[in-house]
Amino acid sequence: MLAAMGHPQVVDPSHPLVERVRAICLELPEAVEVEAWGRPTFRAAKPIFVHVSASMERPFSIVVKTDPEEHLALMQDPRFFGPPYYDRNHWVGVDIDAPDTDWQLLAELIETSYRQVANVRQRTALDALRPTHAGG
């Protein structure tokens, strides 16, 4: 697949780490993948909830939108960083290529990010998939 005009491909979309992120993202209701800025992005229909590759220097990373109540705690964790070009009060980056990557935590952060941008119908559909999470 050709990269969008003017943007070189930052990361191989078929890399196993990207495939793992894709599998987590695409199980969420109405989630779609759209290539943008030479990177895979995952969207709740239109709004982005995951960007793969925070920067050219960190191709194996993801950027997620945080729950405002969790943001400061995440930024105090050395695994997370303020990604360039994103609002650092709402978005965090995390590398996915470390040998000790916590994929369960990443799946929770991806779902939280989805909930930050999803509409009511999408959140309701997600709650139906996650009965223990319904209502908060």
UniProtKB/TrEMBL annotation:
Highest taxon of the lineage: Bacteria
Q: Has keyword DNA-binding? A: yes
UniProt KW keywords:
DNA-binding
Q: Which InterPro entries match?
A: YjbR-like_sf, YjbR/MT2646/Rv2570-like
The source organism is: Agromyces albus
* Gene3D superfamilies to which the protein is assigned, alphabetical: 3.90.1150.30
- One example GO MF annotation: DNA binding
Query: One Pfam family, short name please?
Result: YjbR
Q: What is this protein called?
A: MmcQ/YjbR family DNA-binding protein
